Amino acid sequence: EPFRLSGSSCSSRAINTSIWNDPAPLTVIESLTCGKPLITTYSGGIPEYANSNNSLIYRIDENLIQNLAGGITLLANEKNERKRLSDEAKKESVNWTKKSYYIDFENSLK
Fold it and tell me: Which of 76, 90, 1 is nearest to 39 (CA)?
């Protein structure tokens, strides 16, 4: 069974602009499993969960602030894009189970 949070409906979108190389950022995983349209960065383990199918994901470079502003504006104005990202996030996160994590861990040891 996929991981799901209860009480996570207080926001309609999520932004995680981490510049630290967190190997498995829980806020990203939580946001996606809850189907929140996510704006985030290519940092640490974020791209293992967030990608261009389920998130607005940006490089950490001199354009980051402008890109974040554009992403915020896009999600504020485009209901269809919010729904698309939400649907994709839910669809991809269904496979994030204890069993799949165990199998991935076991395979990494081989």
Answer: 76
With H, G, I as helix, E, B as strand and everything else as coil, classify residue 44.
Answer: coil
Asked whether the beta carbons of 75 and 15 are under 8 A apart, the reply is no
DSSP-assigned letter for residue 34: T
Q: What mean pLDDT value characterizes the chain? A: 88
pLDDT of residue 96: 86
The closest of 25, 49, 7, 33 to 86, measured between CA atoms, is 33
Taking CA atoms, 105 is separated from 37, 98, 99, 100, 108, in Å, by 28, 10, 10, 9, 5
Residue 18: both structure tokens together: 């981490």
- Cα–Cα distance measured from residue 38 to residue 32, given in angstroms and rounded to the nearest whole number: 7
The pTM (predicted TM-score) of the whole model is 0.80
Residue 4 has pLDDT above 50, yes or no: no
**pLDDT for residue 6 is more than 50:** no
